[in-house]
Amino acid sequence: MKILLIEDDLKTAQFVQKGLEEAGYSVISAADGQEGLAMAGSETFDLAIVDVMLPLVDGFTIIEKMRANAVNAPVIVLSARSSVDDKVRGLYAGGDIYMVKPFSFTELLANIQAQLRRSCIGTEPTLLRAGDLSIDLIRRKVTRAGKPIELQPKEFQLLEYLVRNRTRVVTKTMIMEHVWNYNFDPKTNIVEARIYKLREKIDKGFDTELIRTVHGVGYVIE
User: Fold this and answer.
1) Is the N-terminal amide bond of 153 cis, ω within 30° of 0?
2) What CA–CA distance (Å, rounded) separates 77 from 33?
């Protein structure tokens, strides 16, 4: 699942992004309100985290414009402002949760999971399947034939991407752009290395291999 983070404080942005990526989420970020507003209108994401006191365009305005443009993803508001009036304004603008800085990352993560769980009801499934493999997108849990499988965050993101595109061949370039968020370097073997580790965990010891290599093209879950 992809999260849009709009935060101008570099230290806070790095802290939140690192924590979310360690929890298995894909994060796209903007450092000012103008960039954030543009990304909110052009990027696909499952949830947004928006600071209020941003340069160029404030967070309240961003949220209002998101809602006016029918962007229905949950929004968590982060702010150093703690007055009742500011909290009310944030919620009336279209925010779902208002969190005051400094905040607990554990609480932020719990709020993210709760909002994603609610937003997925009746819309996008929270459980992905491929054969006897199951991925719980909210709890970030993977099982195969009922057996729990422990994955590192990048392994989880890679598996989620493959299963979302099951029966479709995805190239190394597509994987790099989606999972690592940067352009493909033909000299790196990071994709092959992660695929190898993923196979060791989800295919080894099972009768059927789910991940297939399409030589010269990429990989596919079947």
Assistant:
1) no
2) 13
Which runs of consecutive H residues, i.e. helices, occur in the chain? 10-22, 33-42, 59-68, 84-93, 105-120, 153-164, 172-175, 190-202
Residues 6+ apart with CB under 8 A from 87: 98
Residue range 99-140, pLDDT digits in tens: 999 888 989 988 998 888 776 655 556 788 898 999 988 788
**pLDDT at position 201, please?**
93
Query: Of 112, 106, 121, which Cα lies nearest the Cα of 47?
Result: 112
Q: Which fold has domain 2-120?
A: Rossmann fold (3.40.50)
Q: What are phi and psi of 27, to 5 degrees?
A: -125, 130
Token reading at 114? 């709760």
pLDDT of 53 over the 80 cut: yes
> What is the per-residue pLDDT across 63-100, written as a single tens digit (0 to 9) for each?
999 999 988 899 999 999 889 999 999 999 999 999 99
CATH topology of domain 127-221: Arc Repressor Mutant, subunit A (1.10.10)
Bridge partners, residue 26, by sequence: 2
> In this structure, what token pair is assigned to residue 127?
């459980």
Q: Is 129 exposed, middle or buried (0-12, 13-18, 19+ CB in 10 A)?
A: exposed
Strand order in the sheet with 2-6: 26-30, 2-6, 47-51, 75-79, 97-100
The residue ranges of every structural domain in the chain are 2-120, 127-221
